[in-house]
From TrEMBL:
Catalytic activity: N-[(R)-4-phosphopantothenoyl]-L-cysteine + H(+) = (R)-4'-phosphopantetheine + CO2; (R)-4'-phosphopantothenate + L-cysteine + CTP = N-[(R)-4-phosphopantothenoyl]-L-cysteine + CMP + diphosphate + H(+)
A GO term for molecular function: metal ion binding
Family per similarity comment: In the N-terminal section; belongs to the HFCD (homo-oligomeric flavin containing Cys decarboxylase) superfamily.
Alphabetic keyword roster: Decarboxylase, Flavoprotein, FMN, Ligase, Lyase, Magnesium, Metal-binding, Multifunctional enzyme
GO cellular-component term (any): phosphopantothenoylcysteine decarboxylase complex
Protein name, entry field: Coenzyme A biosynthesis bifunctional protein CoaBC
Origin superkingdom: Bacteria
Parent-protein start and end of this portion: 196 to 421 of 424
Region (Phosphopantothenate--cysteine ligase): 11-226
Keyword Iron: no
Binding annotation for CTP: D98, K108, P127, D128, I129, L130, F147, K161, K165
Cofactor note text: Binds 1 FMN per subunit.
Organism of derivation: Tistrella mobilis (strain KA081020-065)
Gene Ontology BP term (one): pantothenate catabolic process
Amino acid sequence: DAPGPLSGRHAVVTSGPTHEPIDPVRYIANRSSGKQGHAIAAALAALGCQVTLVTGPTRLTDPAGVDTIHIESAREMLAAVEAALPADIAVCAAAVADWRPAIEAGQKLKKQPGGALPPDIRLIENPDILRTISAPGPSRPALVVGFAAETEQVLDHARAKRARKGCDWIVANDVSTGTGTFGGDDNAVHLIDADGTDSWPAMTKQAVADRLARRIADHFAAPTTK
Ligand code: C5P
């Protein structure tokens, strides 16, 4: 690893969407590009951190110097994250599907002749990776960072999310229509920790990643402050 303030530390970063299978050829997904999570993985590596990136399907190339693990579903993401522990740092930037089809058909679903109704796809809840790894225990990373993509009451919802998930920091952003955050290059975020809220100006996702990585390095340099 490159020398730097995070030398000797290990971080696990999740990124991208998940794909939840309906049948062998179809899936449910979302519009996450993975840009923010991949940028965070690269920024941590640039500070000397050993980084394991667990990513769903994206159009991005694997960041240089980062151990990248490709998965498709939320359950695969959870298994890969747990296999990557122990870690000092976890950053959950993936847009994990909240639900998956309750039944994954073994064969491609076929249109029925004679105008039969289309299939009903029943959904069940996926594991929450951020909440799972935030739970107290011997393998809990010392610093767990989650993301909150909100379309309204961004700060209130993000503070509630931090408490509900049990993570240490939440990076909150406004993804309401017109902000261009999903798939775009820019992001305006608020960093919420136990002490309060830091609102950062709009900047590129790369700059958000660099600033977050520096903030993480500062946290480990002076663990009694933030
Ligand atoms: O609950 P919500 O999806 O808004 O929470 C977002 C945060 O939780 C993100 O950090 C996301 O990566 C994480 N998350 C997760 N597993 C899920 C759902 C969300 O890790 N199943």
